[in-house]
Amino acid sequence: MNEYGELLDNETVRFERLLPGPIERVWAYLTESDKRAQWLAAGETELKTDGKVEMHFHNMSLSGATDIPRPDKYKDMPERMSFGGKVLRCEPLRLLSYTWELEDERSEVTYELSEQCDKVLLVLTHRRLTTDDMVLSVATGWHTHLGLLEDILNGAGLRPFYKTQSELEAIYEQRLA
What we know:
alpha+beta, Alpha-D-Glucose-1,6-Bisphosphate, Chain A, domain 4, 7-stranded antiparallel sheet, 28% helix, globular
């Protein structure tokens, strides 16, 4: 299993992570606002086709004391950002797919879960990324956020968000070139 995201085509990035189970626990961290806020973004998700998805990002809240300040690249962006989407498919404990609708962009995120003994294989695919910059940003962002999810599920201290993201951005610039 590759720790880095894989570019499936010019607009699709895929990640695989083997996480500690049980599958119900991993599903809760993908779908429950209070748990998802610890590693990605808060917001309600209606677990049904055409259900509403809310994403309220506050990456500074994911940063620890050892983190670097928010990088210059993000200085002009709001510290908190929200957007929504719609559930495309929901098969509890197995699959959740929804749109991310941010300004003019509409991409699609799919989480697939499968049990692997006492572990859970998470396959995350983000599709319909329209520019190279978006592919780079999404790949780096997901890698960073999934690392936080791993830390939480393993009971480890959280890695510093912006420091990790900055380091990964340089790696992904080379990998995706």
